[in-house]
Every structure is written in C-alpha cells, then in structure tokens.
Amino acid sequence: MDSRDGYTWTPTDGLKAGVPSLGVITPSTNLSESEEEFYDVIVVGAGYCGLTAARNAAVEGLKVLLLEGRDRIGGRSWSSNIQGYPFEMGGTWVHWGQSNTWREIVRYQMMNEVEKSFDFSHGVNHYELNIGLEGSTMSHDEEDALLIAALNKFTNIDGAYGRNMIPLPYDMFHVANATHLDDVSAQDRIDAIALSLSPQERAAVESFVLLCSGATLATTSFLEFMHWWALCGYTYAGCIDMLITWKFKGGQSSFAIKFFQEALATKRLAYAFNSPVNNIQDTGRKVQVTTRDGRRYHAARLISAMPLNVLGEVTFDPPLCAGKTKAIATGHVNQCVKVHAEVSNKDLRSWTGVAYPHNELMYAIGDGTTPAGNTHIVCFGGSNKHIDPEDDIDATKRAVTNMFVQQKDQPNIERLVFHNWSKDEFAKGAWFFSSPGFLAKHLDDMRERHGNVLFANSDWALGWRSFIDGAIEEGTRVAYEVRTELTKLREVHSSS
Amino acid sequence: MDSRDGYTWTPTDGLKAGVPSLGVITPSTNLSESEEEFYDVIVVGAGYCGLTAARNAAVEGLKVLLLEGRDRIGGRSWSSNIQGYPFEMGGTWVHWGQSNTWREIVRYQMMNEVEKSFDFSHGVNHYELNIGLEGSTMSHDEEDALLIAALNKFTNIDGAYGRNMIPLPYDMFHVANATHLDDVSAQDRIDAIALSLSPQERAAVESFVLLCSGATLATTSFLEFMHWWALCGYTYAGCIDMLITWKFKGGQSSFAIKFFQEALATKRLAYAFNSPVNNIQDTGRKVQVTTRDGRRYHAARLISAMPLNVLGEVTFDPPLCAGKTKAIATGHVNQCVKVHAEVSNKDLRSWTGVAYPHNELMYAIGDGTTPAGNTHIVCFGGSNKHIDPEDDIDATKRAVTNMFVQQKDQPNIERLVFHNWSKDEFAKGAWFFSSPGFLAKHLDDMRERHGNVLFANSDWALGWRSFIDGAIEEGTRVAYEVRTELTKLREVHSSS
C-alpha cells in the first residue's frame, strides 16, 4: 500500500508524492460508526512510542484506542519497500546496546533479520572528504583514524572523554556540573579546541556532529551530543557500531508492524488512522479527545505520544503548565534532510563521503545493493544548508552528485527516495535534538503528566532520546504507569 | 528474613549458615491446602528467568503457579543485606548495554539506584599483581594498559579483535567458522600466543579469563569468552564497564523483588517456595508436576526455568530427547567461588589485585565501604584451585590475605560473607560457562521445547548468556510463546 508520505523520483516517472510502505494500515479503522465506547486509555500517535504503549496496555488487559493522523504506523521511523528493497525514510539503525529496541528485537526473534549497512569489499573502497572545493580520498582505516583523533579532541572535556562528566547516560545530569555544559553549543566547543584541529579534522568532526543534530553548530547542544557519545561507550567505534551499522533486512516497518499486530491480536485494540487530534480535554473524571473532523472519544487516561514540535497544534483543556508550554514553543532543532539515491555505479557500494560545509547534503555512505544490482547511497543534510528536496529535484540531484568530486566516481542517479520531515505536519522536524540550555531547563517539564494525560515520546526519553529505543522506553513507561494506576483504582472501586 | 542459603563468619560469631535477604518470601506460599486449581502455566524456578516468565504471564492475563525449591527468589543472583549493606551472593553488576536487564531497570525507574563498585580516591590506590611469590604493584592506569595489551593479543584472532568472527553477538555462529573456534580452549589460545606474552600479561589475561569462566583454562571455551568480549564491544574498557562496574545500591534482591511484587499484584500468581520439583509429566493434554514431597499441580503449559546443571535431578515423562539429555549430562563448567571480606583497612577501598595461579582466590577489588566505615573486598576463585569456603574458614581467610603481599596492606578481616554455589543443590555451579565444543553441539538442544514443556534459562540465552540479562531474555521469550499459544488455542475453542 502507498502512504501519502514520502517522494520518489525516477528519470521515467519524474517526481511522485507517496511511497509504498508495509506500515500503511488498511482498513484505516476498525471502529464502527455507531459505536460509543469508553476506553481505558486512548493513545494519540502510532510511532514506536504510541505503538509500544498501545500494545503493552492491550496485552495487559486494557481497552485501548489508538489514534493517528497519518495513514501509517511508525511516526518518524518507517521504511518504503520499493521493488523488494527497503529505503529507510527516517530511523534506520539498531544495535544490541539500545536496550529497549533490542529487547523487542529478541522478543520478536528478529535478531537474525538485521544486516550491516557497510560493505567494504567493492571497487570504490574509500572515504572522500570534500571540504569546499578541495577534495581528497583516504582509506576507511584512515577515515577512522581521522574521526577518532577529531572526536577525541572534541569530547575530551574531563581528561576521560566524557566518562567523568556523563558517567551514567540514563541520568544525564548525574554530575551537577553537566547542567552548565548544556549551555555550551557545538560551535562554542569547536571554538575552544579550534587551534588543535587540522582542517580535515575540523570538517570531519563538524559534519559528524551535524549528522547527529540536523541543526547548525550554534543551535546544537554540546551536552546532548556528549550524551549520544556516552551511550555509544565514549568511542568513535561505538558510535559507528550503534548509530549507523545494523539495519533490518526488511526495513523498519517490518519491525513496527509486529507491535501493531500483537496489539491487534488481543482484540482489545481499537484504532483509527487519518485521525489527527485537535483537542484534549481532561475533566478530572475522564479524558475527551476531539479529532480534526469533530469525532469525540472518551477514556480514563490519555497517552499523548506526539512529538514535541507538533504538540503546539493541539489545544489542551485545562491548559498545559507554563514549563511544558515554553518547551513546546521552543521546540527542538533537528531539520535533517535524508535523501536516498539509487545509482547504477556498482563499485560505489564501499564508498563513504563528506562534502562540507558548502554542500546541501554533507554526509553519505554506500548503504546497500538494490535487487537491480545498483548501489544505494544514503545522504544526510540539515539546517546547515537546508533544502526541501522536492522543490527542485535538479538541485537535489546536484547535491547528491556534489558528494563526489572524483570524475570517475560521478554517480548515475536512477532513483531518489526521500521524505520532507520539515514540512511534515505531524513531525515538523526529524528526531529530537536540543539547542543549548534546553534540556537543563525543560527535560522535566516535557516528562511531566497533566492530570489524566501522560506525555510519552522519544523526544524526552532518558536514555536513547531521539532514537527508536527512546520511543519504546517512553511507551513502556507510560503503559506501565497507566495499567498500575487503573488496576489500583478498580481495586478501590470493587472493595468499596 | 534469613535464607537458608549463604554463610557469614565474624570473629565474634564464627561461621553461621544462612544470611538475611530481601529475596526471602514469607509466607512461603499463598496456596491453600484444599485448593485444586488448573493453571495456564506452571513456572519452575524463581530466578530472574522464572520471575520474568511468571510476571509476564500473570500481567498478560494468564493464571500462573510459580514453584521454587529455595526459600527465596533470585536463583543464582541475590544479595544479603547485612546491617544495611548489600553483599552480592551471586550476580552483581548491570549495565545499559545489557538490553533486557536495563529495560527492566528503566521500567521500574531504578536507573538512579545504581552506583559504581570502583572508587579510586582512597589511600591504597593501586593494582597488585602477585604471580606466585612475586608481587608487584602498579597504578590503575598501568593495570588498564597491561590488560588491554594482554587481552588484545588474546582476542585478536581475525585482525579485528573478534569483530569479524563474532560480528553479531546474538547470533554467535553467524560466521560459520566460529563453530570450529568453539573447539578451542582458553589454554589452546594461550599456548598459541604464549611467546608474545610477558609473564605479567599472561597472568593478567589468564586470571581475567578464569574470572569469567570459573573453570580451568583447559575447560574454558575460547569462543564463549569471545562471545562475552563481543557483547562488551570488543574492548577491555567495555568489559570493565559492562561486567564489573555498576551495581544496585540496595543489592540485586531489591531489583528481583520488583518482578515478584508486580506479578503478585495481578492476583493471578500462585506460588510455593520450599517446593523442589521431582517429576514433570506431559500427557499431551496437560502437564503434571510433582514436588519432592508428593504434591501435584496441573497446567496447560510448563516453563522449566531450572539451570542446566540441576535438570538431571528432575525426571521427565516422556523422557527428554537425546540431545538435551546429553547436554544435561555434560553440564557447564563454572564453579566460581565468590567471597566477600569486610576489612577494617579503610584505604583498601581503591585497591584491586590478582594472586595467580598459586592462590585459591585469584581476582579481587575494593567493592564498597560498609556503614561501619570498613572496606568491602570481593574476591573470586574457581576451579583453578577450588575450595569450599565453609570447610576451613582459616584457609579461606588466608586465601583473602594472600591477595595482599605488601605487609602494610594486610587486611584485617572483620567479616566474611559467601555462598557455596558448587554445593548448592539448586545450582550445582555458578553462572553458565561452557567447555570447548559444548555450545556448537548443544545450544539448540538446550533451547528446544519438549511438548508442552518449555525450557528457559540464562544458561542458553542467545545474548548475555550466563547473566541476569540472559535470564530475562529467556523468561521473556517463553512467556510470549506460551501466551500467544494459549490465546490461539482459546480462539479455536471458542469458535468451534
């Protein structure tokens, strides 16, 4: 089935909106028109967080309604399967160091359904670092050495590469001083170590940090980057392993659908896609949610699993507290642009490259071989030189081509696949990344419940915030909280 | 409450059997004499695996009976809280790289209830390496450098420190060649690299490997050690982080009890401690379990969460298949001896040491400061020079004292705390570790179900086998399998 989300471009068909995905749910609802149910819990948002919350609640005996604005599950993590090959539209890589995600992968016995993005056995087996007009190539071992040197300088704030500052990544502010570090931007940190960096090291570390944040150096919290670094074991090798190596052979949506199917099998899951929510009203005795088209649903509790950047579109009654309102108004800064290019050059499979700071796409790797035998290159840009890829396809193709300076490696583009996360009304950006000072001020605000409404999202997870893992962490947390609470309530009622 | 398990020794009270633990359950059963219930599932064994299986099944709506031979939960992982300080009798450390464990820690919001074992801020801040009669001390940085050099030589079988041989730790035999490596013993591997090792490196790597296996070098599978190494990110720093750094402030039993309490709160958990199982009979229509004292219980499914080394004590009807029978007859080889010493020397808090191969205890670290201000040293021995610590307390004290060669650091022992895992009828050894060839032959056998009986244990987990994490992995797997299966059966019945 095709989702409304995403775009493809091919020489034959040109630009087309909508791409096929295993995550599209048909029929789009299992509610009957006449039904007037009272649910234990309504979950708003069917990304991994909402899916986890809905699944856990349903499996544990609660009557659940799942509402989603899109036509598909997965939120900011989904794949489009085109001619048998999955293009990851947002969210790709998983690792056994990501506890919540991996727990689910093992539970669904999918640990053999992952494969490596990298394959350094093909012809163009090198790293290309294009700084402005200056291009150079080096071996992947030299690439690693460059990044290790650069990132070690960048992260070594405490003589221990961050181990002393963030010893316990799930408690980011475990060391009180870390609060101050959140005020530091990536730009501040680069400025502080600039004299120690070679031009190549500087371009390598800057583009790597921006790959993580999707923002600009000035709008990237240094501490939030350090948090990723700590989760990855304080090493570049750990970052590569955990951030960009293992992906699902069948694509992210092959994983997400398991959650939905399990929930559905309980027969306690009602759902409605294409159902954006307008208003959430908590009377104290129950919660009422109103969709954009005026339908109303009622439940004892509501789990809002919407991302930070879109929460402002929903009105809450009573209104949200000042801290949360301010966090929502500020939002996060990640405007990552992810573009897949299928190119006929088979040898590019082993290529990796950076084109920075001049190019609209700045970081790319050979990510797979399509059934047609073409190479799949995944390219990342962001706020540094932001584009809306569908607005000018020729410019987007140029941004891909510009990753390659060597004439002989010029890619012959046969397909582009992408989604515009910045213009997505249900995301307004990619994965969460915070600007300086934001988390120290607002992490607690974002996590706080509001009466019978609980807020869950990867955007304010404690561990792998911004990742699928953080989404599952959060969905797990609130489902547990709601179930425990409703069980107690029922005991009180049945004993009174 | 005191458990029958464990021993303490103090100068005043001498040797005493039984230690207090939060994991002791009173009353020991919630069954009434008259009751004749039919359960959805009976879980045999209340270690982390059985606890997880029982909890998940109960929370997801099944009627569960949990049977346990001991007077306490936790199996091979439990703590004794003595005067407000937890001594870990078996199983101690946890890490966010252990996906199943950490998922539960976050779910129970216990991520701030962990603390570091190491504290390198006190007086005797060094590493002591005693090889035979030769003692030497070095800084902890030198200790790290020594271990890194030694372990890198030991693990570098593929030019990539094992990354190529075990790229995907949850699929240990992902690279077919790994099967052959399972035939190699740690001794074989040491022999192969012996010329490249200094005497200090050799003692350091051998004692570290034996710390992991609790066996002898000849009975330690090299591949199983490599599996640990791979899970730890292929580095010594990763091993230290994940294997021996973070522990619960309140002890392991403060974690295990959460599982039990959550299951109990569902009101679908029946349980009986002090109830060792004798016989498990599967009629095809139901499973009947008979306890040692002749009580019988019936269920649709049975989850055996007993360790490999004690499965031979239970008779199965129909008998188990040949592969499983052989695996049980072979067993695993870990006979770790773990002895806690509370010593009055405050400065020893920052000490770490090895006394190998001459001493009965070979590896020890300063693990904490007790409420009395004493230092808590945890010492490990194993099959290398195996002892039953309660048999000769003076010899056990000498084995502790012998860890320290420097006269000025001689510990003044005020308390010993330990459990004899080798003589424990419900364990017959410590955490799983395999002899050469065992896993390639028997991993699948151990995991296989037997009609309506499912076998779950950390001993045959795919990921963190031998760890609490592997226990939770396994409990999760079988509870999911049983629930899915029974739900389908009921649908068939209700529609027919």
From TrEMBL, chains A, B:
- Give the Gene Ontology MF terms in alphabetical order: monoamine oxidase activity
The EC number on file is: 1.4.3.-
Q: Which residues bind FAD?
A: V277
Matches recorded under SUPFAM superfamilies: FAD/NAD(P)-binding domain
**Domain Amine oxidase per the UniProt entry, residue ranges:** 49-482
Residues reported in the UniProt entry to bind substrate: F380
Cofactor(s) needed: FAD
Q: Which InterPro entries match?
A: Amino_oxidase, FAD/NAD-bd_sf, Flavin_amine_oxidase, Flavin_MAO
The answer to whether the entry has keyword Cell inner membrane is no
What reaction does this enzyme carry out catalytically?
Answer: a secondary aliphatic amine + O2 + H2O = a primary amine + an aldehyde + H2O2
Family stated for the protein in its record: Belongs to the flavin monoamine oxidase family.
Protein name as catalogued:
Amine oxidase
Organism annotation: Alternaria arborescens
Instruction: List the taxonomic lineage.
Output: Eukaryota, Fungi, Dikarya, Ascomycota, Pezizomycotina
